[in-house]
Amino acid sequence: MLFIYGGLFFALFVKIVHIQATGVVNGQVLEARAAALYEKEAVLTAERGKILDRSGNIIAEDTLSYRLIAVVDPKASKDSKKGEPRHVTDPQTTAKILAKYIQMDEADIYKNLTKKITDSKTGELKQPYQVEFGVAGRSISHEVKTAIEAEKLPGIVFSSDSKRYYPNGPFASHLVGFALKEEQDDKTFKTVGKMGLELFYNEQLTGVNGSMQYKSDAFHYLLPNSEQMVTPAKHGSDIYLTIDKSIQNFLEETMTEVFKEYEAESMIAVIADPDTGEILAMSQRPTFNPENRIGLEDWLNTSTQKILEPGSTMKIFTLASAIDTGNWHPNAFFQSGSYTVFDRTIRDHNYVGWGPITYLEGIQRSSNTAMAYMLEDIGNDTFVEYLDKFGFGKPTGIDLPGEVSGKIKTDWAIDYVTTSYGQGSTVTPIQLIQAMTAIANDGKMMQPYVIEKVVDSEGKIVQNHEPTVKGNPISEETAKQVREVLASTLTSEVGTAKKFAIDGYEVAGKTGTAYIADTDGSGQYLTGQNNYLYSFLGLAPADDPQLIMYVAVKRPQLEAGEYGSDPVSKVFTSVMENSLKYLNINPENVAKVDTIKMGDYVSKNAYDIEQSLIESGLNPIIIGDGGKIVEQYPSEGLEVTKGSLVYLKTDGAITIPDFTNWSLRNVLIYKTMSGLNIEIAGEGYVESQSVSKGLTVNDSSLIVLNLKTPEETFLPPIEENLEVDDLPQD
């Protein structure tokens, strides 16, 4: 016995020594086995970057949602203290009810609830502990979650998830696009851009997941004194657009009304800042809601990815070419009606013309034959050179995917003539906008763009778009003359654009009526009043343009007595007038107000300056407890109107003012200068505040300001003469 037990002990001793020396048992490395049991890794999910407008308003962002899970293993119910089932007890009923709430067939849900999996150890089929429902079970809203929970289905649970959220509904949808959760090869889910900016900038918007490694016991509790190795997630970059939310909303609302009223086949509208080339609004109809893709029929952005025949809007650039080459003779006469090139005859839109008329009247009446005679003086080759300078026939280079270029036809002699009045050759809406910047911007043509900047998760600007001059196709004097002539198309008794006039603002522009090619492949054009593309390309105010706008309506259903300019003008006049007022562009008939020039108040006594400003008719706001002024806004040299707020920052504790009726802009200035923790809810003007006037606070106290939109859409501006660029910086 001693010999036997001694031998066994010796064998055990040898085994232990071997294990300590090699760390291997039965071919398995013990350290790796222990790591597998106790070392865990958790994924830290990265957020997708936001898409925001020029003022930081959210257009697209990730938001909280829920993931649907079904516990199907009966073992889950054994731990229930109340004896209530914690697993799916009736797959058939559960499938029938869930089918009402998620986009998955009842049969597929039932199949998922009853499926078996192969045991990795025994190879036998067994019941999984829980199952999920792929894309259909993700991005569940709180409302749907609550409704499913009300059904009291055993075994149905939810876990927190995220989804792409578009708070504004159909808002520049073909520009922004949409993103969806997609299952990856490793069975994880990832939000992927599928269209528009979400697709084009998918790489910048997509973050990089992080991880957290730690050691736990068999019950998954963190072991004491164990190290946590954290690799933080890198969130996606935020993309700031040049789009202005207010102007875009004006456009969306008006286009929806007109589209419904006239039952048009399609519509397109673009608004731009001529000084910079920034696109302030862009929309089309039909449109869709990126939240659920309802209404999505056409995946192309009409502004950049579709060509059209521009119609008489092209006459703007024929006119500019004539003026710039010295071939514009406004008071000379020509015979209107028809013009023949070899065996081809073109006619004016009324077929017979108006007899001998001046070239100025020809522009006002939108005469095709006037363009043909002017082209004789310009010369075909020179005319094409000018069209090239204006950017037609080639991409603008806008920061959007899939831009097409159109084509200027020059195959036959008649092509030059038809192109001069906008037929035969093709362009894109964004090319018309770019070319019009030269007319509005005294000859300087600006490249259009929609991305203002890209900011990474650490707040660093990784891409910053500055205005780009594409050329000077015409002189400053030519541009001014073109605007004067185009303004007369609205003011002349014979002008075709009288419906586009806006009270208080001088508008300059040109109407267009273009043929639409038949889709039967015959090469023929459609005929009939309802079978044209009606458009307008205009700017305002004419003497100092602040906005350019292009509107086109395809095949509107017009009633007897209506004209193609009716639906187009309803969009243009409403949106342009609202936008000009929103931008504080005063109408011509507004009386001039006295302004006060700001002095240099830094280092001076705040209360002395306060009294002086009050006597001047201004409203000073002291930020701090008084004493020497360390910062002021507006800065020295700027002119402000009486009643404007002037901010004087000093050191010391801050006393809260009465924010009632302050505009959002004034609140943002105060927030930046004071450094206070101010939370803003709503839009418009301050209605209430969470901290009372006169209370002294520190920079960590939370102050909530509730804003509401006033009954009057536009109130007199508090600071008419201050530019956005003059705001104090953080």
What's the tally of helices?
20
- What's the number of structural domains? 4
Q: Give the CATH architecture of the largest domain.
A: 3-Layer(aba) Sandwich
Structural class designation: alpha+beta
Characterise this structure:
The strands form 13 sheets. Strands 4, 5, 8, 9, 14, 22 and 23 form a seven-stranded mixed β-sheet that branches. Strand 1 and strand 2 (28-29) form a beta hairpin. 38% of the residues are buried. The chain has 20 helices and 37 strands. It is globular. The chain has 730 residues and is an alpha+beta fold. Helices cover 28% and strands 25% of the residues. Residues 29-38 and 711-730 have low confidence and may be disordered. It has four domains: 2-38, no CATH class; 45-241, Penicillin-binding protein 2a (Domain 2) (Alpha-Beta Complex), CATH 3.90.1310.10; 245-582, Beta-lactamase (3-Layer(aba) Sandwich); 595-726, Trypsin Inhibitor V, Chain A. Helix 11 packs across helix 14 (380-389), helix 11 (315-324) packs across helix 17 (476-491) and helix 13 (368-378) crosses helix 15. It is found in: Membrane. Belongs to the transpeptidase family. This is Penicillin-binding protein. Pfam families: PASTA, PBP_dimer, Transpeptidase. Keywords: Membrane.
